Each structure stands twice: as C-alpha cells, then as structure tokens.
Amino acid sequence: MLQVENLCKSYPEFKLQNVSFEIPKGVIVGFIGQNGAGKTTTLKCIMQSVLPDSGKITAFGMDIAENEMRCKQLISFSSGAFEYYRNKKLQLICDVYKTFYDNWNQADFDSYAKRFNLDMNKRVKELSAGMKVKFALSLAMSHEAKLFIFDEPTSGLDPIARDELLDVFRDIVDDGDKSILFSTHITSDLDKCADYVMLIKNGQLVLTSGKDELLENHAVIKGGVDELTDEFIGRLVSYKRHQFGYTALIRRQNIQSSDKFASEKPTLDDIMIYYSRENG
After folding, report:
1. What is the dihedral of CA 183, 160, 135, 23, to 10 degrees?
2. What percent of the chain stands above pLDDT 90?
3. Contact at 8 Å (CB) between 120 and 158?
4. Three-state SS across the chain?
5. Residue 118: which of 141, 97, 136 has the closest Cα?
6. Can you tell me the distance from the alpha carbon of 241 to that of 157, in angstroms, rounded to the nearest whole number?
7. What is the crossing angle of helices 129-140 and 159-173, to 10°?
8. pLDDT value at position 279?
C-alpha cells in the first residue's frame, strides 16, 4: 500500500537519513519518537508538502511525486486541530472541502459529525481544541480513502474522546482493505489499537516491529552499579544510573544465563524512552 525507500531530507540543524518502511493493507502503524526526531518531516514528505532531497515514495503502486493528485484521492491526511477559516461555519467549510474529492461520502461525514457531536452551524473559532481535532478528522475520513496518515491525531482530546477515536480507527481497518499510519507521543493509544510500531531517533528509523513482538523481545532490568561493566553495557539498549543501582532496557536475545538482574516486561513508554536516550 505504501513503500518509503531511503527517504532523506536535510535542514540546517536536522537531517532525515535513509528512512525506509512499508505499510501493508489492513494494519494500524504507530509512529513514535521524541519531538524533533523526524516524525512530522517524514509524514510531510510522504504527502509532498515537503519535498525530499532523495528517496522514493510509492503508494498503490504509483510514484507519489509523479502521480500526486491520483494518490491524494486515495490518501487521507490530517495534522492536529482544524485552524483555518476561523470565521467560517463548519457547514460551509465542509461544502467546499468535499468538492476536492471524487468519492466524497456525505453519509460517512454525517455519521462522524453525529458521533463527535459537531454543530455544523458553529464557526471554527467557537470550537474547543478537541472539537477542532474531531472536525479535521471527520473531513479526513469521509472521502473513501484507502490509506490514512494522521500527525498526532489524538492531541488535544480528553481520554474519553481519545478512546472513541481509537475505536473508529479499528473500525476503519476491520475490512482488511485500509491502513492507518499515525504519529503520536501518547503510547497508551498504541497499546489500544496499533498492530505495528516504528520508532525514529535523530532522523533515523531505529525500530520497525509488530507491537506485541517488540514488547516480548525486550525486558526492563534492574541491578546494582557493580554490574555495569563495559561488556554488560554493550549488551544494553540504554540504561539509567541512580542512587541504588541502575535500570535498563535489554533485548532478550542479549540476556545470558549468568545474569543476575531482576526483569519485567516493558511498556511502549519504556521502549520509546530507552531507545531515545543516551547512556548514563
């Protein structure tokens, strides 16, 4: 459905370096990493709102750079809250927005508007931050797209609204014909709905894995400072030293029978924190 190959983009203080991944049909992929790691730059390159320096992006068997308009009929993109045309009513914005798509589905939009309690007679400036997000997503999910790309879609939503939206995400991919790629810093959202997780650090993709496999293949460990030999540190993803010893993340394949530490299954928060930090 989507293939990204050796994507590169340079700025004076940041470089996206050889990012490659593939999104198959029927899955939800969570894209995580620190602020400034490259998540938004990657998504904007896919959508051609930022032109990459090199690399190839293919969607539905088409080169996006050469078939941008055709691809964008099949891709839905939303980036946070709807902040445009603040003095316009939602109904007018919807009426204009739908003219850009060949397969606009008014019934879908009306269903989302009802589900999210959108008042179409309100103006954008009258909406709360959460309602602006819901309006943006309602527009994005109503033109028969096959691939949904969302940048921080649950930002600004309360826990109940986030849970409701994640249910919508699962409904979208249930038929096996559609996929979702979304960036987030709220890893609990991924616990609820993601099939795969990608982690980016300093412009480089460092992890691409099934969510359950990722958690099963790592362990959070704890022990005394005297265990922190060079050989042992070399087996860790990273570690934190504290007054009473250390905590660390390790790949289970790097655990040896002679190791004496206590271990537990990590959370996605642990995965993101330890892969994103430096040792010490």
Report:
1. 30
2. 70
3. no
4. CEEEEEEEEEECCEEEEEEEEEECCCCEEEEECCCCCCHHHHHHHHCCCCCCCEEEEEECCEECCCCHHHHHHHEEEEECCCCCCCCCEHHHHHHHHHHHCCCCCHHHHHHHHHHCCCCCCCEHHHCCHHHHHHHHHHHHCCCCCCEEEEECCCCCCCHHHHHHHHHHHHHHHCCCCCEEEEECCCHHHHHHHCCEEEEEECCEEEEEEEHHHHHHCEEEEEECHHHCCHHHHCCEEEEEEECCEEEEEEEHHHCCCCCCCEEECCCHHHHHHHHHCCCC
5. 136
6. 35
7. 10
8. 62
Query: What is the identity of the amino acid at 231?
Result: E
What is the pLDDT at residue 233?
A: 94
How many C-beta neighbours within 10 Å does residue 134 have?
Answer: 25
Residues forming a β-bridge with 220: 249, 264
Residues 136-167: tens digit of each pLDDT: 889 998 999 999 999 988 877 888 888 888 88
Condensed to tens digits (0 to 9), the pLDDT of residues 214-237 reads 999 999 999 998 889 999 999 999
